[in-house]
Amino acid sequence: MKRSRHLSWKTTLKYLVFLPVMVLLNLALPMREPLAFSLYFALLACGLDPFVLSAEYLLASAAALSLAATLCCLLQAAFLCLAFAVFARMRRKVGWEKILFAVLAQLPFVFLYPHAGYAFPLPVIWQKVILAAFLALLAFLFEGAVRALLFRAFRCRLVATEISEIALLWFFAGMGFYDLAGLIPFYAVTLFLLLGAAVLLKNAAAVPLALVLSFPLCAARMSVVPAAEYALLACVGVLFSPYGSIVSALSVLLSFLGVQYFEGLFAESALTIALTVCACLLPAAAICFLPERAVKKLRRTLLFYRERALPRIAINRNRRAVGEQLYEVSSLFREIETAFTAEGNRAQGVHFKEKLIACLCASCPGRRKCRETGLYESFDKLIAVGKAKGKVNLIDLPQELSASCRNAAGLLFALNKLLDDYRRMEQELEAARAGRKLLAEQAHGVSEILKDIALEQSEEFAFSEEERILSNALSAAGMMSSEIFLYGEGTLFTASMTLLESTDPKKLCRVASRALGVPLALSEKIPLTSDRACFILRRRPDFDAAFGIAACPKTGETASGDTHSVLKIDERRFLVALSDGMGSGEGARSVSDRTLSLLESCYKAKMPSDTVLSTVNRLIALSGEETFSCLDVASVDLDTGNADIVKIGAPMGFLLSGEELRVLEGESLPIGMLEAVHPATMRVNMKAEDFLIFMSDGVTAAFGSSAELCSYLSGLKPLNPQSLAEEILKKALGRYKGTAEDDMTVLAVKLTRAA
Question: N- or C-end of the chain: fewer Cβ atoms within 10 A?
Answer without folding.
Answer: C
